[in-house]
């Protein structure tokens, strides 16, 4: 053992031990795909994205080395720190673009709502673990409260996109823990009817004077723009119009890598971040988009597999929730770019340019790897 | 109701839930795949046409910015069309080489290159950036003939902002400049991003800034067909832009010119207000600057000259600089005495030439004193002793309570940005102002100096003029305003900016009359008589001197102190005395006594406003007046 530690091959093996080869392969495929697209969409950001990728992979590796039991013991402190930071943002946060999201800490500034995306499912998984074997209706109420507080704090910043993701993250844990269908079905029905009626009566609701209770003017604007993008061709509607043109004009095989006219004549807004999917669809066509969907399906399948095989309830819940978060990112982003969901600032997971989201997502992959490893090392 | 389950049951339940989640994922991804199929296969031809054959670009149509005219329709800010030469970096290839070749055809100066670099950094790759502005017809022709050599370089007709009055009233009108990152954030916060698409300029100071929302207008949209090179070839549809609204001011630009000229090369400020409405007739801060320098992005050289000048021409002294009011504070103190009942008009005191308080003698200017002094005389001869006593009787809190509603020590709310609050001292203020407890205590002696307008108190010329206007109109404090009408550019409908009375002071008419009659005698027999003695109209006024430098006991001899340490010269006045049409405050920095520098300027302004008399040189400094002053 002592000998092998200094052996280069032994070192490499020790280094690779926490890595799950299948997940790594899928992740590598996604990151490679992203890089390939970035060369076309925004070549001047390649270097920055490479640095982001290295940092994110390092974060993944660290998460993978921590045992999932130790990780769960961090759940409560992380959650508390997250909530405290969110309150601090509300009190002393920096206002940027009309929303309060950033907190200055010494030299750098952090976005506590991002932390909540990991801390939330961790906390709830830990909670249900404590109650294992005796989970009752009461526990779902407690879990609901644990979820509502930080989501409410993020919502008033206001940051609709992140609060949506955190809500989803928490909801998935509760769902996997066995929330009664009697509760899920009515809520889902209300949601469907609500969305249905907004679509049906959109014209009336989007009149300038109509106030949407609980929503900011810009959020109303986003929904209304989705219903009729031509209402605001220079503003948010511009994004949707241009990205649909990009996707549609891509056709089956696409216009070819580096040959997207929408992309290269700069019609596409934010083409390296939230709208990079439109670049993919334009240049690589339906084939390219289906390939991406398949890679995502593989990622999710591996995530579910790991969760089902996980040794403890907490790690099952956590694994399942993280897998579903990946799905949520992917679905919301592609849905928004292709014009079936409103424009909420959610990046395409593992593909969009930007360090923060990539680190968070890779932390998620690292946690999955750690769960997988704990199965191997558990006495079962 | 608690169900107990074995871990195995939990595990199976979890497995079932994962299956449900997996199905949900597949349905959602199926939905996406269907959507992609719809867009990319079913409607491919449609989108292909839109993207490939007819690349439709949505171009913003930038609205014309509203113009600004004075109360008589004289133009202060307008637009004019001129040609610019612009480079689109994404299509031009090597920029330095392109510019070098361009300079063989047209003159391109070093500062043009610098400005180009600066704008380039702030703009996106596909936006065209000006390399030359204001091309002559000849230059346009020369370039057009060689255009084929310069891909990505184009001549554009653009609107420029022009301030035909140059440096006159520049502190009022302000200027526009290129939108920078900070402006972008502010625009986003207001939710106006769409309306500013295509806009390059935004109001940076003065009315241009405060009325930005009125002046900017509504951006239109043009759908154009763009060819493979990205050049617009055909217009498909157009929603016109709506031009910004025009501003019609209360300001009289001729009066403004007379006032600015009267200052000569002295530093100072003047605000003239119409007492009945709060409308500002003239707002002067000297020295001024030429706002036209800022429109295209100011050159480093010009900026340095303005910014480093010891005279601070960019500073709007009329609204931002606060000075101790000196003796111009006395009429307001007198009114406080009458209103609070601490003094009556007939009551007289004996002035021995000083006021003793706490073992210290507060000196009058006249050695030996003015003898018996009543309220009328106290204003006419500017007797300090009278006000030392009055201040002591009122107490600092009594003074603050009376002065605060007049607007002293708070922003007047004038419709240009950058106003200072000034200082209305009180024990509370001192507590807030100072950190150390021994500095926070209020001393009785400090109240005494406040009584004659020295000590801590400091007010802007705007506050002085507005307070005077409120007193002479019978006690209505208005929010002073520079804009009289906002004119809708399409319908020409005028929206009146209402005179906005902020509060009614509830002054007794006989008290106001007492103070006003004393102020009239100031210009007939008192400290203002040398400037106004022979005026064909009657004026009420008061001179004042604000100490810049405390000489610690030594006698102030003007010639001996350097120019920058000389006292500031104040004069407040209104006319005609019977029914005031104008109330003003003049301040000359380091002008010495009020009667010496400030009063002669007020005379020229009043002569022009009431008689139409145009002076041919700056107001002279009345050196002899120094001898007779307070």
Task: Show unreliable segments of chain A.
Answer: none
The CATH class of the largest domain in chain B: Alpha Beta
The helix count of chain A comes to 17
**Low-pLDDT windows of residues of chain B:** 551-555, 626-630
Strand content of chain A: under 5%
Oligomer: heterodimer
- Main sheet of chain A: which strands, in order across? 1-2-3
Structure characterization notes:
- The complex is a heterodimer of chains A (380) and B (630).
- The model of chain A has no long low-confidence stretch (mean pLDDT 82).
- Helix content of chain A is 71%, strand content 3%.
- Chain A has a domain at 19-65 and 229-380.
- In chain A, 48% of the residues are buried.
- Chain A has 17 helices and three strands.
- With 380 residues, chain A is mostly helical.
- In chain A, a hairpin with a 2-residue loop joins strand 1 (94-96) and strand 2.
- With 630 residues, chain B is α+β, with helices and mostly antiparallel strands.
- Chain B folds into two domains: 61-249, Penicillin-binding protein 2a (Domain 2), CATH 3.90.1310.10; 253-309 and 323-628, DD-peptidase/beta-lactamase superfamily (Beta-lactamase), CATH 3.40.710.10.
- Chain B has 25 helices and 23 strands.
- The longest helix of chain B has 36 residues, at 7-42.
- The radius of gyration of chain B is 33 Å and the shape is elongated.
- At the A-B interface, helix 9, helix 12, helix 13, helix 15 and helix 16 of A face helix 1, helix 2, strand 1 and helix 8 of B.
